[in-house]
Write a structure and sequence with these properties.
Largest sheet: 5 strands, antiparallel
Number of helices: 1
Distance between the termini: 78 Å
Oligomer: single chain
Shape: rod-shaped
Order of helices and strands: HEEEEE
Number of strands: 5
Radius of gyration: 30 Å
């Protein structure tokens, strides 16, 4: 009877220990999966932000090229890219400064608006403001 009582005791001890180890493993596993998903999401968001910045930068460079070649900047226009497009609208210059509004529309549905101020004399952008 004493040995039977000991075996019961061992079973009573092994089950909660196994359960605790399994729960601990699941918690760690869940935490790692969550961490991985967060990292992947951040990586994806960074990629999109870099892409948006590249599109704005390219559009600004195209406007500067038009200015430097002696061309007239149209009052409205669109630059088309692989994953989005940028529409621009040029205001009438005030003195030597011309303000141009840029609207980025990504194929994902995201819209970002930026405003560039261009110096007509140096034919370069002198100020950039992103509008949220």
């Amino acid at each position: 009877m004493v040995s039977g009582h000991m075996r019961n005791n061992e079973n009573g001890f092994t089950y909660p220990l196994t359960l605790a180890v399994v729960i601990l493993f699941l918690l760690l596993f869940t935490f790692r999966v969550e961490q991985l998903l967060t990292e992947r999401k951040l990586s994806y968001e960074n990629t999109i932000i870099l892409q948006e910045e590249y599109y704005f930068h390219s559009s600004v460079k195209k406007i500067e090229e038009i200015m430097q070649s002696g061309g007239v900047i149209p009052s409205k226009g669109t630059f088309t890219y692989l994953k989005g497009s940028i529409g621009f609208q040029a205001d009438i210059p005030i003195g030597t400064v011309q303000k141009i509004n840029f609207t980025l529309r990504m194929h994902t549905g995201t819209t970002v608006v930026g405003r560039g101020f261009f110096d007509i004399a140096s034919k370069k952008m002198i100020k950039w403001i992103e509008i949220y």
